[in-house]
């Protein structure tokens, strides 16, 4: 059993600072222990606490972490998940900490009777980055009822600094970055790309020196900690593999890109808009594509064959995006196991080396899971389908590349030559924003 003395010095400093700061943003990298830091802060406050976070995290992380420490093990948790009846029962219980997933926030505040919470904790606060969402508007109307407000995330700006406005607003109710997203944009941003016909702004970029101005404004209530500054991390190598197309598959891809329609195996495939087209192109680089009737049309096996040649005896996590990719992966790698994030047995088998290939969707495992594997000389991640979301990408990689992983980690990215895959990689590496990536992908020759 761990004690307060086992907290790292940077965690103890955050706990101490919270005693004079009732609202704080902990922008703490994955693996630095933000959960127990927040639990320790909560344990020193009076009254009840509401924690809002991703479902997998509220179910599998907070209560379990509290049970590992002497100063938090006696906290009484209520898990507000399941059917409406189950949620109401948990809500009406006499607990000290109430946990609810993001998707049920609107339902929560529609209830007639609520516990008298004094503290609010938002885990993965970037889930509230959209100011137009109903969940944000609902939460915003309740913020003043909490005496203490804390937000936790390792990715506060998954797409751009625009994502900060709502998150900082949870803490200071708009004092630092403005009372509206419009005023925030006008002060710190300028148009980046526009629609040539309508003049509509597609994307925004920071004005000169705006980043430094924003950082200075929020510096008194937000702290950023990077794992490389505090932890001894395993060796990591990132490799981008460029795979040549088969002639017929490349021709089909280029026809779809140029004409937004292509015929494959007597099936006519179309894309109604540029956004739909990019999705279709990503499917084609993976090897299959959905028809208008949701049938799966085979394009190529080049990327799949490349992957199977990489496996050998190295423990491997394969991230996929499309359902047809999962089916093809399962057919080509019969020993592979599909991970259910609630299946502790499978996770234990993986960590002990008894599962050699783990198939995962990044959104289902992106937060809260520990998938360390120290069997063999190295462990590897292979991105079969690339995601547009930098947040999903970073969080998914951190399931393996984290404190406690002793063996080196290799992260492979499978990209088809001269395709949309290279544009996605530029987004994930922070070289380009998504809007420009989409435009570039449609111009590729």
Concise overview:
The chain is of the alpha/beta class.
Question: What is the helix content?
Answer: 25-40%
CATH class of the largest domain: Alpha Beta
Structural class: alpha/beta
Rg, rounded, reads: 23 Å
Report, as a whole number of angstroms, the end-to-end distance. Answer: 60 Å
Query: Largest sheet, described in full?
Result: 7 strands, parallel
Unreliable spans are: none
Instruction: Tell me the domain tally.
Output: 2
Q: Overall mean pLDDT score?
A: 89
CATH homologous superfamily heading of the largest domain: Tandem AAA-ATPase domain
Let me know the number of strands.
Answer: 19
Estimate what percentage of residues fall within beta strands.
15-25%
The CATH architecture classification of the largest domain is 3-Layer(aba) Sandwich
Give, in spatial order, the strands making up the sheet with the most strands.
3-4-2-5-6-1-9
Number of helices: 20
